[in-house]
Structure formats: structure tokens, C-alpha cells
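Shipment paperwork, digital attachment
Item: protein structure file
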Amino acid sequence: MNIRKRLQLALVLLLLMLTLSVAGYRLLGGPSVSFLSALYMAVTVLAGRTFGEIVDTTHNPGLRVFNMLVVFFGVTIMVYVFSVVTAFLVEGELTHIFWRRKMEKKIRELKEHYIVCGLGDTGRYVIDELQKTASPYVVIESSEEVLRRYRDQAGNGRELLSVTGDATDEEVLAAAGLDRAVGLIAALGADKDNLVITVMVRQKSPRIRIVARCTDLRFTDKLLRAGANSTVSPNRIGGLRLASEVLRPHVVSFLDLMLKEQTAHCASRRSRSDHRRGSKPKSATST
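Attachment content:
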């Protein structure tokens, strides 16, 4: 059980114990015990404070036995609550929550960005290329563990804006800023999932450019009819590249060089554009 579920369990147990204590004090204490008195008694007992018995148990053996049970189970639950809260703070869960909110704010501020669905073998290379061209993007990945491993491998110098969830869910796509995105890459491992994403995205955004990963070439026509602007088969491209490396190695080297120069040019142009947007115009001076 992870720390968040343990924290939820601890809070539920504490609330349940408080409710049972208040109900027990009122039922066993008789009509003279008000709700506020019972609540005060329960809180002081659970907190381990001794301000005296607001609810008198001297002449009520049943109420006294109940009070001892409240003390025993209450102390046990409070110890568990404090241990879980301490673990929650020590393990950085609170820091993770603030970090997540900060990242969500950055995603909400993005415009004309790209959405990459899936951080698998294909999605990683997509992100690498977007990084090289300094293109803004958001990753949608269902596994938090996959995102964590990628961040660890990429290092602290690479910021990964991501949304954890199912890319076939409309709410998850909306959280990634679908209404402001200019392009989407459906790179999930299953062609059926990429088809679902293509249909949903095309219905929501008619102008966005959609490129879908297609393992089975029989899905190519389906994806295009569903609204994809283009489809890419990694297996087919990999096979063509292998053959070209054997048959036309010099041509492949030339194309690789051209692509690298194009990538560097795009990154430089985007950097200059961002610099111009960030710089303030100088005021004119008269001579």
C-alpha cells in the first residue's frame, strides 16, 4: 500500500473513531450529555489531553468501560496517524503535490504546442526530436513509473511536462491542452488505441495535425479515414533504413546530415523568435 492510500486510511480511521466516540458518549451518558460535550470529550481523549471529564463517568460503569476503550483505540489510531503523516512529509509526497501543481500551471499556459501520446520506444525518440527543435510539448503517459524513469535518465536539465492518465480519455486530452495544441502524435503501442485517439481528437479539433503510429499496415487506411493527417510504421521505416544502409550508405549519410542541419536551423530560429518576444522595444530618442 503506497503512502497516499495509507494516509487516506489513517484519516478514515480517525474520523470513524471520532464519530463512534461522540455517539457512545451521548448514548451512554444520557440526555444530559449534549453533542458539544460529547465532541469535546472525544477530542480531548483522542488528543491525549487531560482537562477533566466533561462527561461524568463516576457513577456509570458502562460509560467508564467505553471511555477506556476509546482511550486505548484512540491512542493506537493517533500513533498510526502521526507515523503516516511523518512518512508523507519525509518521503516528499507534499513536495510532489506542489511540483505537480506548478507543472499543471505551465501546461495551462502553453499555446501552439504538441501532444505526444505514449512514452514508449517510439515516443522517446519523438520527444528527443522535439527537444532538439525547441518545440513545446506535453506527454501523456498512463504509467507514473515510466515517467519517473525517463526523468531520471534524462537528468535535471530536461523538463518534461506530462499528464498521467489514459490518452484515450477526453479529460486527459483536455488536461494536456488539446484546444490550444497545433499537433498531436499518437504513439501508443496498440493501433486500436491510436485509432480511438485519432477519432476523438479530430472531433474536438478539426484543424490540429494528427500523426499516428501504425504497427499493422492494415490500420493505415482506417487511421487516415478517421482523421489522421499521416501515419508512420516504425517497422517499415526501420526495414527501409536497414536496406538503405546496405545499398546506398552515402545517400543515407547525406540525408542524415541535411536533417541535422535542418534541426539546428529550426532550433536557432525558434530561439531567436522567443528572444524577440521576450525583449522590450527600445524607446526612440530625438537628436
